[in-house]
Design goal:
By secondary structure, the protein is an alpha+beta fold. The chain has five helices and five strands.
C-alpha cells in the first residue's frame, strides 16, 4: 500500500514539474513573438541531404564533373555550356544559403492562408518547383505534390508568381538557372 502511494506521489510530482517546464517554455516563446498566429507557415527541410548539389559543388559545378578548361584547338570549352542546379528552399548546407534565405523571407511575407480554405479547415502540404534565371526572372513553375486542396495549391503557386521577379542570381553561382523546390505547409493552429 505504501509503495502505491509512493509511486502515485512520484508520478504527480513529475507531472507537475513537466507542466511547469512546458508553461515556462510557452511564456518565453510568447514574449519573443507578440503576434498571434492563426496558422503555421513552415518550409520543411528536405527529407534527404541534397547530395546532387553537394556533389556538383565538389566537382566545380561543371556538367562533366571536371574543372573548366581553356579553349584549345579541337576541344570544347565547358564554360560555354549553360549551367543549372536544383536545391530545396530549406537547404542549409549549400553555397546558395544566403540567397535562399532572402528569397524565403520574401515569400513568407506575401504568403497567406486562403480564407475559404481556413473556414473549411483545409490543411496539407503543397510542394512547388520553380526556376529562376540569371536576371531573377521566374521561368518555370509547377506543383510536384498536391496538398489535396485546389485552393492551397493555387495559393502556393500564386505567392511564388507574386514575388517575381527575384533578385538576380549572383555571378559567383556560375549558373544560368536555379531550380528551387519549396514545401508550403498549411496547418491550422490548435
Amino acid at each position: 500500500m505504501l509503495s502505491k502511494k509512493l509511486v502515485l506521489t512520484f508520478v504527480s510530482f513529475s507531472l507537475a514539474i513537466h507542466i511547469a517546464i512546458l508553461t515556462a517554455v510557452g511564456i518565453i516563446d510568447g514574449r519573443r513573438n507578440h503576434q498571434i498566429s492563426v496558422f503555421t507557415v513552415d518550409f520543411k527541410e528536405p527529407l534527404k541531404d541534397d547530395q546532387s548539389a553537394t556533389n556538383k559543388e565538389r566537382k566545380g559545378n561543371s556538367p562533366t564533373g571536371h574543372e573548366d578548361t581553356e579553349d584549345k584547338p579541337g576541344e570544347t570549352n565547358i564554360k560555354s555550356y549553360e549551367r543549372e542546379d536544383t536545391v530545396n528552399l530549406g537547404s542549409r548546407n549549400t553555397k546558395y544559403y544566403s540567397y535562399l534565405t532572402k528569397l524565403k523571407e520574401n515569400i513568407k511575407k506575401n504568403w497567406l492562408y486562403p480564407k475559404q480554405a481556413y473556414i473549411r479547415k483545409e490543411e496539407g502540404t503543397t510542394v512547388v518547383k520553380f526556376s529562376i534565371v540569371k536576371d531573377g526572372s521566374l521561368i518555370d513553375i509547377c506543383i510536384i505534390a498536391s496538398s489535396g486542396f485546389k485552393s492551397l495549391d493555387t495559393e502556393a503557386l500564386n505567392v511564388v508568381k507574386l514575388c517575381a521577379p527575384y533578385t538576380p542570381l549572383p555571378k559567383n553561382f556560375n549558373l544560368s538557372k536555379l531550380n528551387i523546390v519549396a514545401n508550403f505547409q498549411y496547418g491550422l493552429a490548435d
